[in-house]
Each structure stands twice: as C-alpha cells, then as structure tokens.
C-alpha cells in the first residue's frame, strides 16, 4: 500500500522544498504557482484519481457476473492515467485492480505478459488486452442499466 504513495509524496515534498526556496528568495508568487503545480502533479499520480480498487479474485467474480471489463493498473503509470482520463465517468463501470496492492492481480498481469508487469492490462470476457486504446475499452462497456 505504501508503494502506491511513494511518487505522490515525493512530488509533494520536492514541490514544497522548491517553493520554500523561492519564498525565501522573496518570490512568493512563483513559489505559490510552483507548489500548486507539484501538488496537482502529486494528486494526478496518486491512487485517489482512480475508482476504488478491489482484489483480483473479487474483480474476476464480479466480471463473470456482470460482464464488465477488469483493468489491472498501478499508480504512477502514465498509460493507466491516460486510460482513466479518457474513460471519464465510464471508469466507474470497470473493475479496477491495483497490482501494487493485490499480489494476485500482479500475478495475473505477469502471467499474461510473459513475466512483466505491463499495465494497463484489460481483461474483457476472459481475454487479456495489454495497453488497449481507451476508445476500444469504452466500446466494451455495457450500456448503463
């Protein structure tokens, strides 16, 4: 769990240090702008941007029941972030599995990708797709009930 927060915390700390240095030099406007940029970057790379993750076993059983895709992802992955942003509100209709929080999810991804933890890996109807086009993933979603 702590591994998911390393990058966001590091970004926030570095941004705070750089902003403090600018503020000490007497440039408060630039310090505030820099701090805001780093905090936003930390937020985008945090697990908070993604819908709540569930375990791989739970995602598999839910997907079998409702037919929704499973997205295996990890914080800090720019391709996962791209997929999440392009899905927009539709992202709530996908089962998200954070491979850094769920060892079983990481094992699924490694099995599909020849030992690599390449994400996003999207499983639709039992078939894995590595880093698919976000529009394709959106087309795989069932219409809302």
UniProtKB/TrEMBL annotation:
SUPFAM superfamilies from the entry?
Thioredoxin-like (SSF52833)
Looking at the Swiss-Prot or TrEMBL record, what is one Pfam family this protein matches? Glutaredoxin
InterPro entries from the UniProt entry:
Glutaredoxin, Grx-like_ET, Thioredoxin-like_sf
Transmembrane listed as a keyword: yes
Write out the entry's keywords from A to Z: Membrane, Signal, Transmembrane, Transmembrane helix
Start and end residues of each Glutaredoxin domain:
71-127
What span is annotated as the signal peptide, if there is one? Answer: 1-19
Transmembrane portions of the chain: 33-50
Q: What is the name attached to this protein's record? A: Glutaredoxin domain-containing protein
